[in-house]
Amino acid sequence: MRADRLLSLMFLLHANGRMTAADLSEQLEVSERTVYRDIDALSVAGVPVYTQQGINGGIFLDENYRISLTGLSREQVASLFAASEVGPLADLGLKRAAEDSLLKLFATLPQSQRQAVQTMRSRLYIDPHGWFHEDNIPEILPPLQQAVWDDCQVEIMYEAVGDAPKTRVLDAYSLVSKSDVWYLVGRKEDGEFRSYRLSRLKTVRVLDTHFQRDPDFDLAEYWQQARAGFLQEMSRLFGRFHASLHVHPDSYWYFGSFLEGRFERMGEPDERGWIPVSIVMAGIEEAAMHILSLGNRVWVDEPEVLRETVYNRAKSVVDHIETLNT
Hints:
4 domains; Arc Repressor Mutant, subunit A; single chain; five-stranded antiparallel sheet; alpha+beta; four-stranded antiparallel sheet
């Protein structure tokens, strides 16, 4: 356990340059006293790690020191090379770079660890795309990517759901990919950060003006908070609608493909082979939409109001077709 912590300490210093004992303590989840003991142990082992007092002081590695991958455990090395699609990196034009980086890392490994990599890649594959994924990269992604890289402001025309398109000027802070959908994280003139789905951007114009980044901005923390806020708002607007169903076995796949995290199998199939399922939707309208898409392959057990809603919707479709045929 301590060996892993010593490696983590070295990688943190290598990545960040200079860190305080307090920062290392927080990252490694140990006391500052333990951090200093680990530094002494590294020094004894010949690792050029130093401490400096004062306002600009801290703990740092010799700038010419390089960490060898031979210090990584078998599991750590294998995890780096788990076979997977590069996903959003390809959208950003970084697919070849990602593949080349892994190739260079692989070349530095000893033979024993290369075997661990081959074992992992033959047994695990990670596909980040949802079903029916299409490689439709938004045309506005390249200029937005350049604006984010160069800290430029952008003028966008954005059409929010149920609202007319509006033009606004933003600091192009970051890009986020969630389930094949790209978002721009922008800072408004009043300093508020907002997320904008690229598919709803009507126009994008990169401006010549640059902005100053907030050094305390943490993209991962922002996105987690934004995501939680969105889910909370959806729950406030639509509530949480629960329903119990029975699903024909040949349509059970639908729930894993389109309702992941929003359904639960409630037991063994009944005498007909139909599978009991519980679902949680934003509201009765969303629940009815999914149930209607399954046709006669699903039955609503409860609530009765949902069963009546589905029946009335289906009947209105039949009535409409009969009207057109008369």
